[in-house]
Amino acid sequence: MLVSGKPLAVIDLGSHSTLLLIAQMEGNRLQVLNEDFAITRLGQGLNESKKLSKERQVATLQVLQHFKQKAEAHSCQSIQVIATEALRRALNADEFIRQIEQELQLPVSVLSPQQEATCSYLGAISVIENFKNKRFTVIDVGGGSTEITLGQGQEIVKHASLPVGASRLAEAMDFKVKLGSSDRMGLMQIVKIELEKIAFWNEIDSSRVLVGSGGTVTTLAAIHHGMERYDAQRISQTVLEREQIWKLYYQINDLDLEERLKLPGLEAGREDVITYGTIIYLTIMELRQLPWIRVSARGVRFGYLIKKDW
Questions:
Q1: Model pTM?
Q2: What is the dihedral of CA 205, 210, 213, 218, to 10 degrees?
Q3: DSSP secondary-structure letter at 3?
Q4: Do residues 63 and 92 lie in contact, with contact meaning Cβ atoms separated by under 8 Å?
Q5: Strands, E, within the chain: which ranges?
Q6: 118/155 Cα distance (integer angstroms)
Q7: Which backbone phi and psi does 45 adopt, to 5 degrees?
Q8: What is the per-residue pLDDT for 1?
Q9: pLDDT grade, residue 73 (50/70/90)?
Q10: What are the structural domains, with CATH classification, of the chain?
């Protein structure tokens, strides 16, 4: 459990991004002291080579060093690195983990798909008031995988991890920038095939509160609001209708990469994968006829702090 008044840091090492959270518990409330992120693309090329590239490892180590310094500046009682899909899949993951632990003196925990789904779920719903009696479907589209979790309040009922993510789909299409209708339909079919393997697929319906977390949906919310400066609180109060997400998809897809970078709310590093992550959300919402999604700026790293017994 979090010790009240003593800051903790968790670094989420994802396939596309590396994220830092420094927080402490004040009563029953998680107080955020600092957040940061960097696009590190650790999982780049993993589909083909099955290994983490040296270039991406070096870039990620630099970010981890920077985040460690920020955590130390906050006098954190503990700094924990958690890793997900990229380090679950890479053949050289153990070697990279040893390097992090030896060179940076940072402990690394590779979350199982179930642990990742649990953390994603708990983090995502933590922004919603009076969540205890609500039934949720939480979707977290990452770079290398998509986690889908059903629950009621903080109780997780069922979960699934799908081998599709924004970066993974983009790599499969050689990062094609402007997707034609046949491209989009082909990608939606790939996602559909994976979704229909989920044992509880037919239980995902509009009777549950649909919540989305992760970089794709928070970026869509930021673009929707035209945010010049990221505002996590406003993001977590956002509801996007399915039609609005389609509109955002077409708006972004019509732009080249340089034009996308001019969109308020779209941070550099997401411009070439944002449409692919959006397709995953749209496929789920269309197939299950889900009219809207509540956006949460909190994900795996928040859930880890909430759940973790320190």
A1: 0.89
A2: 120
A3: P
A4: no
A5: 8-13, 17-26, 29-39, 78-83, 108-110, 135-141, 146-152, 155-162, 209-213, 239-241, 292-295
A6: 9
A7: 80, 0
A8: 45
A9: very high
A10: 8-110 (3.30.420.40), 114-300 (3.30.420.150)
